Each structure stands twice: as structure tokens, then as C-alpha cells.
Amino acid sequence: MATNSALAGQATAPESHAGHGSDAGHVVLRPADVKTTLIASTTAGARGFKRWSIVLGVLTIVGIAGIVLKAVQSLDDQTEWGYTAAIAAFLLTVGGGAPLVAVAPVLAKANWVRPLTRLSAAFSLMGVVTIAIMVPLVAVLPPLVTEGARRRSIWFESPDLTPHVMIFLAMGTLLLAGLGLFYTSAMPDFAAMRDHSTGWRRNVGKSLARGWVGSTVQWRTLRMRIGMFGTFYFLVLIYTHFVFTSDFAMGVVPGWRDAIFPMYHSMSSIQAGVAVTIIAAWAARRYLGLQDYLRLDQFWSLGRLLFATSLLWVYFFFSAFIVFWYGRSLADIAWVDMFIRGPMIWAFIPGMFMSFLLPWWWLIWNRVRTSVNGPTIGAVIVLFGLLLDRMRIYVSAWSVPPEQIHERYLHTIPDTVWPDTFDYMIIVGALSAAALVMLLIFRVIPIVSIWQTQEYQLLSKPVKYLRGHGVLVAKPD
Question: 463 phi and psi, to 5 degrees?
């Protein structure tokens, strides 16, 4: 059984069996070169980083100004906050689902995911932006009891402010679980920054490495913690989606009872997480020169996952839709008129095409999936589709006047709500803030895990298999 402490000690390896930057064959890199290249990636493109940081920072300030101005104008009007709820749901969908790419394949001992674990786990830190956006939404969320009448929700016999407290508790726990997953898996790399970097990065690495030396006990504890945080993160993610959808979607629409919707929301979060990981990997490969680490194998595998989750999207959507379509009660008819053929049909039709039909048709071709750009194009389509889908759901739900929330079903379908100037400011600012968080993280620590890449190089070697070539990977644990 190989020990992980060998990662720091082995300094040589066979020469590369493929050209630099090539996606054919298997590139064998020396562990020392892996460490040097990935640490150097944190300082690559300094001028571009500064320029993008300024742009994203300014747009983030614009978003903050939009929230403040909207709060001054309409803090007591729930119907004005639909697009803010939609962008909060979108960030929860994307940032919450991406770390599962670093959890499920790792638990299944898939080797192709090793260069992506750091990247996908870091998206959980976008929860800081999501929680900040939730502050005004919670302020305008109707209380459970109004003039002695309790509205329909999942909180039976609970205090009035239970939804307001539980959503922050759920999202805060999710953020802490994601931070634990990210930090635990990054400790060996912080030690590498401590020993092989300079300036403030060396000081940061020294503070966060916490005495890491790579002993057998430390490696065993590291793997145990990754498994624990990964499992806990998945459980908290499902619960967070359940609470969010129940209180910020179904809870504000009279007569909307749907047991499948929270799982549909959670599943589409996995789809969005795979999509945003593909896009981020493409950007890192393109602009940070990491072609030897983010290779065709990663995009091919993620493309298959994106194809599968696109099929799951239509499965869960149809499973919920068919209940309302054939139920034909007054509440069911109102739901169909509200969310399918009603005021947000302009978002439903392109959202359905871009969340399912277009990525399904695009990724079904082998030549598309077995490329770098093919899955990336499909991922961009999926993210746009999911953004429209979140607008369809939450803008429609929040357009219901609060005085109708206690009715048995929705008697009058609200008119289409179009975004105003403040909505555009909030949407642009929220997306910019999320991108800025990711940009700053990978200015401190490499976007590709050093220790996991070194481990894969030490445990694998190219072999000839029949008429082709493959990679033989050892299984030390």
C-alpha cells in the first residue's frame, strides 16, 4: 500500500508521453514541476487580474446601490422583489451545486475529477453573496401570522419569524460546510505555498497550513475529514433547497402544493454546478495555461454528467407538471396559468429549451462531448436556461399581492412583471460579486489541487491495451 507521504519526497518521474498542451495520450509530469507550475498560476496575468478586479468591484458596488435604492423605494412592497429573489435562487443553484462535483466522483474514487475538486469546492464560498442578497428578501417576506390568520407553510404552530430565521440558519450552515470542505482539502497546498512561495502568499500559507508536514496520521485524517464534510454538505444542500423553495416560492403563492418541486430545485442545482464547473475549467485552461492539468478527460466526463442532468431536469419537471395538468382542480389550473402559460411564458419557453432540449440535442453527439469547446458551449446554454427558469418561478411567485396569500387558491393571475433599472443593477452586481469572490480565492491558492495532481501522477502510468493506449492507475486505499 502506497503512503501519501511519498508525495512530498519523490522528485522525479518518467518523461512526458505526450506533447506539451496536447490532449492526446497521457502527460507524465514531475511532482516538483507540478508544484512550481501551479503555484506560479496564482500570479499569472497580474495586469488582467487587476483590471478585472476593478471592473467586478465597480459592478458589485452598483449592485449594492441597486439594493439600497430599491429598499428605500419599496421595502414594504413584496411584488417589487421578484427578480432579486430570482437571482438569489440562481446563485444558490449554481454555487450550491458545484461542490458536489468534488464530492460524488471522489467518493466513487474517480481519478478524472482530481484537477477539478479545488475549483468546484470553491464555488460554495459564493454563499457569502447569496446570504447578503437574502437580507432584504427576508425583510419583505410576509410573516406566518397576519391579523390572527396563519398562512400555509411547512412551519406548523411555529413562531411568526421561523421562516426568516431558518433560511439564514440553513444557508449559513451550508456556507460553513462548504468552507470546511474547501479548507480541509486545501491544507496540503497551503503548506506548499508556505514552503515554496514568497511575500504575503507565504504568510497566508503559513497561517492556514496549521503545521502540516504530510505525516501518515495527517493524511489519514485529511481523507476522513473530506468524506465527512462532503457527506454533510450534500445533506445540508438538500435541506437548504427545501427550506428556500418552501418559504420563498410555494409559501407565497396560495394553493401551490408540490412535493416534487424542492427536489426539482435541488436536481437543477446539480446541473448548474456541473455547468459552471465546465465553464470555469475552460477559462482556467484558456487564460492560465493549465492545458496539462485540465485536459480532454475532464471535459469529456463533465459533458456526460451535464447530459445526464439535462435528462433529469425534464424528468423532474414533467413529474411535477403532470400532477397539476391532470389534477384540474381550481388550484391546479391556477398554477398552470401562473407558471406555464401565464405572465412569464416569455421565460418558460426559452428556459425549457435551454435547460433541456438544446443541451440534450447538442451533447448527444459524440464529437461534441469528446472535445473541450463542445461541453463548454452546452454549459453556457444550460446556465442561461436555468437563470430564465429561476425568473419564471420566483418573479411569478413574488408578483402575488400579499393580501391574497391566505386564499385557498389564486383567483387572479398577476400581470407580467418586467425588470426595472434597480433589478438590472442588482442582477449585474450579484453576478459580479460572485465572480469577484472566485477571482480573489484563486489569487491566493492554485485553482488546481497540487497534492491531488501529484498523487495521480505517482499512481498512474501509460500502458498499451490491445491496439490502443490507456492509463493504469493504482488503488492504494
Answer: -135, 160
Looking at residue 248, its amino acid is F
> Structure pTM?
0.91
The tens digit of pLDDT for each residue in 352-397 reads 999 999 999 999 999 999 999 999 999 999 999 999 999 999 999 9
Give the contacts of 27 (CB within 8 A, at least 6 positions apart): 16, 17, 18, 20, 292, 295
Q: How far is CA 460 from the centre of its chain?
A: 30
Distance between CA atoms of residues 107 and 279, nearest Å: 23
Name the average pLDDT for the chain.
Answer: 88
Q: Name the one residue in this structure whose C-alpha cell is 438569489.
A: 88
Q: What is the C-alpha to C-alpha distance for residues 449 and 294, in angstroms, rounded to an integer? A: 11
At 324, the amino acid letter reads F
Distance CA 306, CA 267 (A): 12
CA-nearest of 253, 250, 267 to 318 is 267
Position 277: which residue type? T
Question: How far is Cα of residue 334 from the mean position of the Cα atoms in its chain?
Answer: 32
Q: Nearest 10 degrees: CA dihedral of 172, 175, 181, 187?
A: -100
Unique residue bearing C-alpha cell 425549457: 352
Complete DSSP assignment for 347-371: HHHHHHIIIIIHHHHHHTSHHHHTS
